[in-house]
Amino acid sequence: MPLWAVLLTVLLVAVVSAGVGGLAGGFASGDSDAAASENGPELNNDVPSGTPSREPDTIAGVAQRVSPSVVAIHGADGGASGNGSGFVIENNRVVTNAHVVNALEGNHIEVAYSDGHTTAATVAGQADSSDLAVLELDNPNNVQALEFGNSEDVTVGDTVIAIGAPLGLAGTVTTGIISAVDRPVASDEEGETYIEALQTDAAVNPGNSGGPLVDEQGRVIGVNTAIATLGANPGGQSGSIGLGFAIPSDDAETVVNYLIENGEDPQAEIGAELVMQHRQEGALIDDGRGAVESGGPADEAGLEPGDLVVEFDGTAVSDSPELLALISEKRPGDEVSVDYERDGEGDLSTTLTLGSA
């Protein structure tokens, strides 16, 4: 079978079993002295003792100086599923993926720093639709907080770095480039919500979930969340094939700030079921009974089962996953313009007020 005929599967990249041994994290990196960039963050973490120091604007320099601010997340019993990563944004606050937290439901969460210090943590806020969560630490280390960069400035070909403990291999450093931007990727295992992700060929594996993807100045430009894989044997792990995905920092920072203030981030919705795979260009509303929620946003806007959404708030829509990704960037109550086709006739438009899931 040719490779192009193999169905790719997108997997969230928390370690779902502890069989590989050790903590699994997703150390990512960042740095900057003036030598790296005048606009870069000023990271003052010390180089680990016994390690030859490297210039801060090198990959080695970034890895050395940022890893103290990245943590591994696991169950307090040491044998729980759901190992992942996170990074410090304030002294006692850590960002990670919601699916890492969900995998540890019913277990006490423990956070481990690169120097071996551990502390208990609790969930301060969580948004499953964005696959993001914020943890508060009981006994944090005094490390430098990482800074979010501007993912809008990221372009294809930019160098990025990921540092972590994929499959329990602590301190692993991988590098690559941004392969694509605005790639619609499922942010949950059911494929019901999507994000517009950064795609990278830097190796991302189970255990990297929640760890930052950084640029050459050490700024967090993405939160590692998923990989595409050719599949695995039943019960086995699937690894990187050079298709990793990260939540853009602009989206992540907005959600994280909202979580800190409110504890949750409501998901916007249009109140209609979409056909996820079809041949037409656009997002197709299912033509089944009840596909458009009675009295819901789509219904109130005049949309009907079988309508084809071709533009959402000024952005052309190629398929249903892309529409879901665009919706995920909005908030309940936002008004958006929708262009659609019905029974083969185009040039139809309406205004829709997004609801809350």
From TrEMBL:
Basic and acidic residues biased stretches: 332-345
Class of enzymatic activity (EC top level): hydrolase
InterPro entries referenced in this protein's UniProt entry, alphabetically: Chloro_Bact_Ser_Proteases, PDZ, PDZ_sf, Peptidase_S1_PA, Peptidase_S1C
SUPFAM superfamilies documented for this protein: PDZ domain-like (SSF50156), Trypsin-like serine proteases (SSF50494)
Gene3D superfamilies for the chain: 2.30.42.10, 2.40.10.120
Domain named PDZ: residues: 292-344
SMART domains hit by this protein: PDZ (SM00228)
An example Gene Ontology biological process: proteolysis
Keywords per UniProt: Hydrolase, Protease
A GO molecular function held by the record: serine-type endopeptidase activity
Keyword Hydrolase: yes
Biased composition (Polar residues): 348-357
Chain intervals for the UniProt region annotation (Disordered): 30-55, 332-357
EC number, as in UniProt: 3.4.21.-
Pfam family, one: Trypsin_2
Name of the protein in question: Putative serine protease PepD
